[in-house]
Specification:
Length: about 100
């Protein structure tokens, strides 16, 4: 096991001390920055003052992106499988006529 790193992340005007693996630091800092950016955007655009509501909307936004990405990836995999099936049929047909 490697050494742990102690960091402090600020999210929605609150500081969260964390003990993490050093390789996680960059991702966590970027995530915290993205949450803060989105939270400020929600506060400005929707005049929401309750931090819990703002953070819930941030969580919904990020979770929906992940889910939508998974749906799109699944659709792309199905399209690729269909294309491979078509190619396989063409190859079988071409090889059968030789």
């Amino acid at each position: 096991m490697g050494e742990k790193l102690k960091i402090k992340l600020s999210i929605a005007d609150r500081v969260y001390p964390l003990t993490i693996d050093p390789k996680q630091e960059e991702g966590l800092r970027k995530a915290a920055k993205n949450i803060d950016f989105l939270a400020k955007k929600f506060e400005q655009n929707y005049a929401v003052r309750d931090k819990q509501d703002v953070l819930a909307m941030c969580a919904l936004q990020f979770a929906s992106r992940i889910e939508q990405s998974g749906i799109e990836e699944s659709e792309q995999m199905q399209q690729a499988a269909d294309r491979l099936g078509d190619l396989e049929a063409l190859l079988a047909q071409a090889l059968g006529s030789v």
